[in-house]
Specification:
22 helices; 2 domains; two-stranded antiparallel ribbon; 9 strands; SCO2524-like; mainly alpha; Glycosyltransferase
Length: 620
């Protein structure tokens, strides 16, 4: 890969420290102003690499790398950096906690007015609407609080000062409260939308899955059969939070359904019974139907709850583990549902029919990318064939072309709207308390596609498919590099769409933490991919075995023919050859290419010894 995650992340850290840290204090803020999501994204630009990549760790002051220290010099030295990060994290939690102790998960400045509903740009969003809880805030709080709790658990081991230890303990307690509240919010935002095959939603769903254009009643019967187990588990196992109330409707065998996460707490969602003190559980307002964007955001956060790091460090207490188990069930059912829909049928898959069309009749290539991401998550559990992996890779390549990420765009065209100003979709139910209907904007197709390509490449054991995916990742990275801010205090961060599309207005000078955090996530995935063992080729493994067989035989013959009696130099050389052969045998299965290279060098040395022996004996 052309990507250099270590250097790129260090550059981002340097810019983030320059922008965020002044006069001994962390200053939140960016292009979208302050809200519970953007401020968390800003902190995660530092915390995500620091807790997920060992080379970037900051929780053990004596183990911080020198280049990391040089990069974060504006924040302090190896002892000051973790302490100041702790203060910044505590300040974030306090800022988004009500006086009564209830954590705040509002969208605030990320909300906009849904102008498609006839509300003009002069209509103001009411303060009550700005305070509405949103799944994006629940999800990013899960990610940030897990990083915080893990950070405190390790940093506590080196703390000796009583006052500092007290700060660490207080931060961990506050982070646990916010984490538990965010998990409860995700449970209350889960939804199951049930409808008939003859409804508008039913017809749209059947149109999507019926790629062979067979009679709808046949496809509906086959779809119900394919979803039968998911239906049963939703009906019988989902018992807390929202989504459970739909069980009676799921009993009807003639109904179809979809499941996932709405944009916020679902209207009339019951409160979660919990022993944890998480403050008030606010009434929901969100439509009782899943949104693809918020579904994928929630699923990414739930994956972090069951990650290896979360388990090894024991980041969840008993109550959080109970809630995490319920979220994991919803994650698995949702993943299985969308993977079944996306790959339904024996011919062309629905995700190959771009763009994806939702059950409310809206279609975008961006939705195709979101569904493809769920398919990739499912493939991490269900072992796919190389053919299936290749088909998903081709979808990603086509999306990059259609989104004008890897294909040149020479004049204004609608395909670029997904990058700027981004896709807007209405948040149904946000208008029920008065005020205009709100909308949500997404513009992260490039980093999302980048992350999915890297994730799929890490799963593939077929050389040509992997090479195609890494080439795609390099092309997307080149696109992202063009969008870096080049001027102003925020240079080195993202996002400047006019850098890639020259005809767009070039007015952006301030950092978007929304976009920068997503690029950081991609670089973390790239670092993990590079750090994993290399792809093992079965062909190279067999070649290495054959070469080792020949090398072992020739080596044994040299020993038999008395080469060791011909001087100290030749004896040492033969011992060195034996060591190299043992090394080649040790790495043959994990790194067959290295084994081939070492064995070829051994064979050359043995051939020279054989030639010298023949010359000494007079044999031509």
């Amino acid at each position: 890969m052309q990507i250099q995650p270590r250097q790129q992340l260090l550059d981002i850290w340097r810019s983030t420290a320059r922008v965020s840290y002044h006069d001994g204090e962390w200053f939140p803020g960016g292009r979208s102003g302050n809200n519970s999501i953007s401020d968390a994204e800003q902190l995660l630009c530092i915390m995500a690499p620091a807790t997920e990549i060992p080379l970037f760790r900051l929780d053990r002051p004596d183990a911080v790398a020198n280049d990391v220290l040089d990069t974060l010099r504006p924040v302090g030295d190896n002892l000051q950096i973790p302490q100041r990060l702790l203060r910044a994290l505590r300040s974030y939690i306090d800022r988004y906690t009500d006086p009564d102790g209830t954590p705040v998960f509002s969208g605030d400045s990320y909300f906009s007015v849904d102008e498609d509903e006839g509300d003009g740009p002069g209509v103001e969003i009411k303060q009550e609407q700005r305070e509405l809880d949103v799944v994006d805030s629940f999800s990013i709080s899960v990610t940030l609080m897990l990083a915080t709790i893990g950070f405190t658990k390790i940093f506590r081991q080196v703390v000796t000062r009583a006052s500092l230890l007290k700060q660490v303990d207080e931060l961990e307690r506050a982070a646990n409260v916010r984490l538990t509240a965010a998990m409860a919010g995700l449970l209350r935002s889960f939804t199951v939308n049930v409808f008939t095959a003859e409804s508008n939603s039913g017809r749209e769903l059947l149109r999507t899955v019926n790629q062979e254009r067979r009679p709808n009643h046949q496809v509906a019967d086959e779809l119900r059969e394919a979803l039968r187990e998911i239906n049963a588990r939703l009906r019988d196992d989902v018992t807390i939070g929202s989504g459970a109330a739909e069980g009676n409707e799921l009993d009807n065998p003639n109904r179809l359904f979809e499941c996932g996460w709405s944009w916020g707490v679902v209207k009339e969602a019951p409160e979660i019974e919990t022993s944890a003190m998480i403050g008030e559980q606010r009434a929901g307002a969100a439509q009782n139907a899943p949104y693809l964007y918020f579904t994928t955001v929630a699923m990414d956060a739930i994956q972090a709850l069951s990650s290896e790091r979360t388990r090894l460090l024991g980041l969840l207490d008993s109550e959080q583990a109970r809630l995490a188990q319920s979220l994991q069930l919803r994650f698995e059912l949702t993943r299985s549902y969308w993977a079944a829909i996306a790959t339904f049928g024996s011919g062309r898959w629905p995700i190959e029919d771009l763009p994806w069309r939702t059950t409310d009749g809206i279609e975008f290539d961006y939705f195709s990318l979101l569904v493809t991401g769920v398919v990739i998550q499912n493939m991490q559990v269900v072992r796919p064939t190389n053919t299936e992996l290749r088909r998903v890779a081709e979808v990603l390549e086509e999306l990059a072309n259609r989104g004008r990420i890897t294909r040149r765009s020479t004049e204004p065209e609608s395909a670029v709207n997904v990058h700027y100003p981004g896709l807007h979709f209405p948040l149904e139910g946000s208008e029920d308390n008065g005020g205009p209907r709100l909308a949500w904007t997404v513009a992260d197709i490039s980093p999302t596609l980048f992350k999915r390509a890297l994730t799929l490449a890490d799963m593939v054991d077929d050389g040509p498919i992997r090479s195609r995916l890494l080439d795609l990742a390099d092309a997307i990275w080149s696109h992202l590099q063009e969008r870096v801010l080049r001027e102003g205090d925020d240079h080195g961060l993202w996002d400047r769409p006019a850098g890639a599309y020259k005809y767009l207005p070039d007015e952006v000078r301030e950092v978007s933490w929304y976009y920068t955090k997503r690029v950081v996530d991609c670089l973390v995935v790239a670092a993990r991919l590079i750090n994993n063992p290399p792809l093992r080729s079965s062909l190279l493994t067999q070649i290495a075995a054959d070469l080792l067989n020949e090398a072992d035989h020739l080596y044994d013959r040299e020993l038999l023919n008395g080469t060791t009696t011909r001087g100290e130099t030749l004896r040492v050389e033969l011992e060195r050859i034996g060591t190299e052969l043992r090394r080649a045998r040790a790495v043959r299965r994990e790194r067959p290419g290295v084994a081939v290279a070492v064995t070829e060098e051994v064979l050359r040395k043995l051939d020279r010894l054989s030639a010298a022996r023949r010359a000494d004996s007079g044999v031509s």
